[in-house]
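Z., the sequence and structure:
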Amino acid sequence: MDKERQIRLFDRQAAQYGRKQESAAMRRWRSELLREARGSVLELAVGAGANFRYYPAGVRVTATDFSPKMLDKAREAAQECRLDAEFMLADIDRLEFPEHSFDTIVSTLSFCSYENPLGVMKKLRLWCKPDGTILLMEHGISSHTLVAAAQRLLNPLLYRTIGCHHTRDIPGLLARAGIRIVNKESHMLKMVHLLRARPGT
C-alpha cells in the first residue's frame, strides 16, 4: 500500500477513533504502562491521543503522527487533559532526532502500520537515553498455533482495509534492534504485548 493511501485510511478513521470506547482491559493496560513515563517523552503515531489521560504529571510529550486528522483529535485531547505536548506531522519512517533525545519513548498499537518496523525499532534505540525507557503496547503474531494461522489468513484483508498488519513479531523486532526487554506481559490469546524495554542488550 502506498503511503498516501495509508494516510487517507487513517484520516477517515480519525473521527471514529475519537469516539471509540475502549474495553476496560485496554484502559487498564494503558494506565499500567504509561504511569512509568518520565521526563521528555516521544510518542509515536499518537492517533487521537488515547494515551494522554494516563501520563503522570510533569512529563513533556512530543507527539507524532502522519495523519493530519488524527493530530487534530490529539490536540483536542491534550487541551482537555492539560498535557504539555508538542505535535509533529511526520512519517516516522523518515523522521530523525538526535541520539539520546528522550527519557521515555512510547508506542501503543502503532508497529502494525510501519513500512519498515525494524528500522523504526533501531531509531528508538538511538533516540532513547541510555538510562531511559521504551514502553510498548503492541499487537502482533500470537504464539498459539491456531490463532497465528487465522492471523496470517486474515492479514492481507486487514491491511488493505485498515492499513494494519497483524502478523508482526514485536518481541523479535526488539531483540533484532538491540533493545533489551525488561518486562513482558501477553494478553488476548497472546496477541497483545505490554513491553518495558531499555536500549542496549
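The radius of gyration is 16 Å. The helical segments are 3-19, 24-34, 68-81, 117-127, 145-162, 170-176.

Let me know what you think.
H.
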